[in-house]
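Dear support,

We are seeing what looks like truncated structure output for some complexes. This example has two components. We would appreciate it if you could run it in full and send us the complete token output so we can diff it against ours.
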Amino acid sequence: MASLNEKVQDVFNEPACDKNQAKGEKERKKGCTKQLTPGAAAGGCAFDGAKIALQPITDVAHLVHGPIACEGNGWDNRGAKSSDSKLYRTGFTTDISELDVIYGGEKRLYKSIREVLEKYNPPAVFVYQTCVTALIGDDIEAVCKAATTKFGKPIIPINAPGFVGAKNLGNKLAGEALLEYVIGTEEPELTTPYDINIIGEYNLAGELWQIKPLLDELGIRILACISGDAKYKEVAYSHRAKAAMMVCSKAMINVARKMEERYNIPFFEGSFYGITDTSESLRQISKLLVQQGAAEDLLSRTEKLIFREETRAWEGINRYRAKLQGKKVLLITGGVKSWSVVSALQEGGMEIVGTSVKKSTDEDKDKIKELMGEDAHMFDDMRPRDMYAMLKECRADIMLSGGRSQFVALKVKMPWLDINQERHHAYAGYVGMVELVKQIEQALYHPVWAQVRKPAPWETEVSEVSEAKAA
Amino acid sequence: MAIVNTNHKACTVNPLKMSQPIGAALAFMGLNNCMPTLHGSQGCTSFGLVLFVRHFREMIPMQTTAMNEVNTILGGMENIEQAIVNIWERTKPAVIGLASTGLTETKGDDVNAYIKLIRAKHPELADTAIVYASTPDYVGAFQDGWSKAAVCIIQETAEPCQVKQVNRVNVLPGSHLTPADIDEIREIIESFGLFAVFIPDISGSLDGHIPEDFTPTTLGGTTVLELRTMGAARATIAIGEQMHAAAIELEMKTGVPYTMFDRLTGLDANDNFVQFLSKLSGKPVALKYRRQRSQLQDAMLDAHFYTGGKKIAIGAEPDLLWSLGSFLSEMGCELAAVVTTTQSPLLEKMPAEEVLIGDLEDLEMRAKDCDLLITHSHGRQMAERLHIPFLRFGIPTFDRLGAAHKLTVGYRGTKELAFELANTFLAEDHEATPDSWRETFQEINTEVASEAQTTCASNGSCSSCN
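Here is the complete output from our reference environment:
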């Protein structure tokens, strides 16, 4: 069994990642996340990343082996939706005590697994390693192995303690665990030439369900979505798919690439954000399936569907276009995801006045330039203070970002829209893009802005006095 | 009087508890121009940050020493040094509040020694207060972290003062008090011509106001000057048992005598508080509060019809549990299922048969026949499954707005709470149907039968005890 360190090196050496391959030998070893600066760092840890990637598997018990912080401080806080089991929203943790730290927590973990199986009877248990239990040397792989033998159910170790790196590394280590212990362990009842996997889609706010009707109409079956709204067995037999789509940029590229190597499942990287991107992804899926032996008419049926849906989506967006024309948008996201949103916003007539490129490479930046023009404002690491200034001076009309920076916008009384993990609205596919544009329009023209921006009457009337005082 | 039990499960299911470091971080957020920093891996801070953002719906300043595998083993001195220097350069805070985590406590970092060495090396930090609290994740719970941070703030900053401020009182609020609660307490104290300094004071920093400019650190709270002059006050008021240690510490360091108030929710509790303030200040109780007291009496009378005999399932940290639980009992409710997070001397005084230190799974199992569920937002799944009304109290409250403005102290806050409780039961009131009483008769029959059995059983166990 490969040590955690070897595994980390392995995911850093990703042949399917063009960015990774462009790096030198030494640089590659450092991995794809920048070294963190103490006192000036943000973002989740590897454990957080692993949990984000796997928790959407709905019928599995997700058991966190560590002190209360890792589960207690943040459970049931993500918007991944389920069409069936709700077990994934139950918080399981060994909540280790001081004595466990001294004597080791393996026994408590083993007993916990037994309790979970007895009480909740899930098809599998995922056991997450954390910093403290890794540091004291709890061997979760050994415990899981013993428990699997004893209880006759798959108990899967997810070895991604927080201190090995950032969220993005955790995503990949989670993928490794699926490859090592889950994928290929079961067989589907039947297969069709129209079976695909969608890798790296978490069904946040139910976005998968904005796409599924389109695929259903084309007769394409999602054999497994890894991991949004997935069941354990679906992931376990996902190796029988004919083709795969990898979404959410590079988060699970190792899963897609290794499934291609091991099971000959060709994949492409696509996105369901934006009209053009959605169409392109549907085309790619059909092309790959036909290439793998599906009937040729799939291609023309796909084109027909794309034509119909695009027309409808454009009609939907055009209703807002007049009011959105020329509006300036500040886009702060995790990086690569920006592209797909950029083109979508441009479709709505808006202008992107700036975007964050914290996680993007030079090549990504070229692509953004291509989309936004040479004078695109790209910010490497935009501090909240700079966002604040930019909005306060009205260089942007609205900010789209993740939940943590929303108050930067709200405190300057500027519109803001959540486009990150915790968002409540689904923005995928054709309907999603119309929804996004509608939400932007609603945010920009909300009556609240005029009211809250108006100063108190006593402030305007005595302003000269107070200014004189201040001076 | 209650029997205090701890559950004997290996696996915690649906945690009620949160960890110490973020409790400490919240206390540091009540200091002005402060940067709360967790000494641990970046995830420790990230989880806490997300939790507070979702609860308060505010920008949350919180940093990390970003420990990785290697420097955890080698010791975190360099990371703490870099973190302090970086924070100082980027945000120039008046206070840096450091709290350790499970990770660095397992390794055993001697942070107090590190800080001494760092101070010697960086004279530029002389004007920045650095407060360190040792808060391992695997010991205690959220309110313990808050309590420890409060003690450390006092140890670090309080000093005896020769010059006294006759009208000044220090107030040490527990973590169960919201910004609105703190504002209300301040107003009551001020009505006696006293002025109150809260340590810490999240009403300044997390009450959801719109500042004029961007601040990367906390934007309000107790100032360093106020901390340094705690010794000038004539009295200290501690609210919540968790502040007892801090109150003792403050008295020992400065000689300012303290008075404990275990809660400020309920008629009796507030009478004691207001009477104390009146004696302290030598001033009569203001008309406003006499009026409010009378309104509360009236509200309690109006509400008692609906709250009497109701069975409550409640999960909360000890001090919040004590405040809410005591008042519920005073309103005639039965605390049928009581779960909390950590030890406290108050637990055995709870007006319930049993208080369990456990999780929400334990509460769910005990809550089946209850009329109302009270816990933080994580009770939402349970409430759905049990089909009983659910009131959200405590941190985190992430699926309702206004958590910072929820008021349950003073005559006014108690009145609001009485109405909220009664209204919840009123909303559940079912119209009578021709069969309502038929069902009741059937129930009585079965109850009588089952009661006969339980009486037998309890008699049996009693005699065996003897």
